[in-house]
Design goal:
Strand content: 5-15%
Distance between the termini: 47 Å
CATH class: Alpha Beta
CATH architecture: 3-Layer(aba) Sandwich
Structural class: alpha/beta
Low-confidence stretches: none
Helix content: 25-40%
Shape: globular
């Protein structure tokens, strides 16, 4: 039987590597991205390129507007924090780039599509190692959502398909993720990680996500193909 997986894709390193890993595990890939009111659309252009590059069967971009709620530097008039190095990032607080309930909302859409596709898995590129401290990246959250998903769907209740939430990167550092992706043929020049790119789509190089990206490539010993402003 054909294995199908819905893969959440932001056009960044983590989701792209998770998608490559899904393909390597023999899943047909159905890529899902969101236009959710984020500051920039360049990540969606990257997600389109990644889906094509990794041979996705389909790629959908769903429109939702989390600007209606705000509460995040990615969806509200709040400055994106900038630093010179990862060591300057305050790890004791959940950062203002956290978007309230974003992964819960994204996974819920993925769950709906997975039910229609009769997909066996959803892949999400969350990591609990080199990350920004978001509560919806923790293993406890993923486990709870998986339990809920199989209680909330017709396919789950009838046991037609048992849905798993796959987090292949959860215990990997950014350098390990990059090394793994390179081994699977990922072209990271197609991806972007920046929270605050300029009008030409160039990464700022100073937000938390850019700094983790730079550190990852450096530690992996792999040239960083990112175009920085």
């Amino acid at each position: 039987m054909t294995k199908k997986a819905v893969v959440l894709s932001s056009g960044g390193i983590d989701s792209t590597t998770a998608m490559a890993m899904a393909g390597d595990r023999g899943f047909d890939i159905y890529s899902l991205s969101f236009r959710y009111g984020q500051r920039h659309s360049v990540e969606l252009e990257c997600a389109k390129k990644v889906a094509l590059h990794l041979g996705a069967c389909d790629h959908k971009i769903v429109d939702i507007d989390l600007r209606q709620f705000g509460g995040s530097a990615l969806t509200d008039d709040i400055a994106v924090p900038k630093h010179d190095s990862v060591s300057q990032i305050d790890q004791s607080q959940i950062p203002v780039t956290y978007v309230p309930a974003r992964n819960t909302i994204f996974l819920s859409y993925a769950m709906a599509w997975a039910e229609v596709l009769k997909a066996q898995a959803i892949f999400i590129g969350v990591t609990a190692v080199d990350y920004s401290g978001y509560p919806d990246c923790r293993p406890q959250f993923i486990d709870a959502f998986e339990t809920m998903a199989n209680l909330a769907t017709k396919t789950g209740v009838t046991k037609e398909t048992v849905l798993t939430i796959e987090t292949p990167l959860i215990q990997m550092s950014k350098s390990q993720i990059i090394t793994t992706g390179q081994g699977l043929g990922v072209d990271y020049s197609l991806t972007i990680s920046c929270y605050d790119p300029d009008g030409r789509g160039r990464s700022c190089g100073k937000c938390d996500s850019c700094l983790h990206r730079k550190k990852g490539f450096t530690e992996a010993g792999i040239p960083d193909p990112t175009i920085y402003a």
